[in-house]
Every structure is written in structure tokens, then in C-alpha cells.
Amino acid sequence: MALTECEIYFKISDFGRFQEKLQKLGGVLKGPYKATDFYYQPVRDFWNPEARTIRIREWEKPPLPATIYITRNKVVEFGKRKYWELTPPYSRLKLFEGELETGKEVLKDLGFEPWIVVEILDGRLWHFPQEGWQFYLALEKYRTLGWVSRMGFVGTSPKGAISNMKEALKKLKIPSGNAHIKSLPVLMAEKQGGMKRASEKVVLQAKKDRATVNAKVKAEFEVRLKRFKKKVEKEWLKQEKEHQKEEKARKKAQSKPARKGGRTPAKKPKRKKK
User: What is the rounded distance in angstroms from the CA atom of residue 4 to the CA atom of residue 186?
Assistant: First the structure.
């Protein structure tokens, strides 16, 4: 049976106290990390970042190769909360590992352009090895946004994963109002004006597409009109020829002498000269 991964984002007001809670729950810290995510969007389209994203991550700590990730997920609602269900096999699927500039060229060649940049100034990943809890929690400090927690559960169904997640949120005493309604890329995009640029891009592209469609429709209409005119002209010439033929036959018939008794009078024989 395929496993389902569900995530939720929420704000952290007291970082130190929150880490103490994680330790009391039996959490194991897997080491700090630091990275920068360069998010991209299709040149001629706009991907809803709550549904799918593509980015290249530049790792600073640990010093790993730059990695392109594509993520596809959907929003699911249980109670008053929104969760993001990551859809296999696109749950952070790796497309590339190597040099940062090479990865950027790959994205450009695939038809993507830079969108927003997200700096993770400090990141800490916690795991909970308790039986029945396939659970992780990432604490990440973002520039302009501060500390945010990304909690994820794995289960055989979204309902099962979210049920376990609710239990963990209750134990961590996280108020429902602290959960982000929007996904992290959307929050960061709004901070950087990325959503506005995206909407303007969509409108502009729609206008271009509409103009292209209108031009194609106009060109096709002109071709069809030309064909129609040619067909009408051909039909008119045909009818005109038939009319002229009929008119000629009618005039020829009128030019003949009138018959008496339905017969043409016999010609008188010519007299011979004496």
C-alpha cells in the first residue's frame, strides 16, 4: 500500500521553549542546515505554488551539490485546518544534482524562469522514532518571515496521517490559529511581490494568447472568405453562361418566320425566264 505524506506549517513564538517540548516528546535532532531555494515558474504559464513547485536548492550547510526538486501536492481540509498532501512519486522528487549554475541552465532549457528566492538562515530537522509515529518536524528560520515549523506525518491515508498529526499538535499545545492557511512558497511570494508579478504575468500572457488566437481566427476567416468568394464567383459565371446560352437560343427561335397551321409555308417555285 502506498504511503501518504501530509504537512502543515505553523508559526513559533518562543523557539527555545518549543525545542524543549520536542525533547520531552522524545524527539531526536538530526543536525542543523542552511540553504537557499531558487523557485522557478514556467515562462508561458503559472503554476499554483499550493499545487506544485520546482526549485533548485543551493546547500551551504552541509556542503552538498545543488539539487533541483519538483513537488506536487494538494490541499486537504480536516476540521478547521488546512493540510498539504504530498502526492507520490512527486514528493520532493530529485531531478538534478550538480553545480548551481548548471542546474539553472537546465531549468532554463526546460522552459522555466526565476520567480522568488527563499533563504533558510537556520534549519533543524527533528525525528520521532516512537513506534507508530512516522513523524518529522523541521524548524526553519527564513529571512523576512522568522521561525516557522513544517510538520509532516506519513500514513496509509491522508485521514490516518492527519489523525496522528492532530495528536502531535495537541501534545505540543499548538493553537489552531498558529497554523498557516497558505503554503510557505505563497507566504514568501507575497512578501517578495511574487504573487502580484505572477498575476500580472498571467493577465499579460492571456492578452498575448488572445491576440494570437484572434490573429489566427482572422487569418482563417480571410482564407475561408476568399474561398467562398471564389466559389460564388465560379457559380455566378456558370449561371451567367447558361443564361447567355438560353438567351441566344431564345433569340434564334424568335428570328424564325411564324408558322401557319402549325407548319412552315412552302416556298413558291421560281419561274423560269422566257
Answer: 23
- 152 with 214, same domain? no
Q: Is residue 33 part of a domain?
A: yes
Burial class, 77, CB count within 10 angstroms (exposed 0-12 / middle 13-18 / buried 19+): exposed
Q: Which residues pair with 39 in a beta bridge?
A: 55, 116
159 close to 11: Cβ distance less than 8 angstroms: no
- Summarised one tens digit per residue, pLDDT across range 143-195 is 888 888 888 776 667 777 777 777 777 778 776 666 665 777 888 888 877 66
Give the model confidence (pLDDT) of 222-245 as tens digits. 888 788 788 878 888 888 888 888
Burial of 171 (0-12, 13-18, 19+ CB in 10 A): exposed
Name the residue range of residue 225's domain: 193-239
**Count of domains observed in the chain:** 2
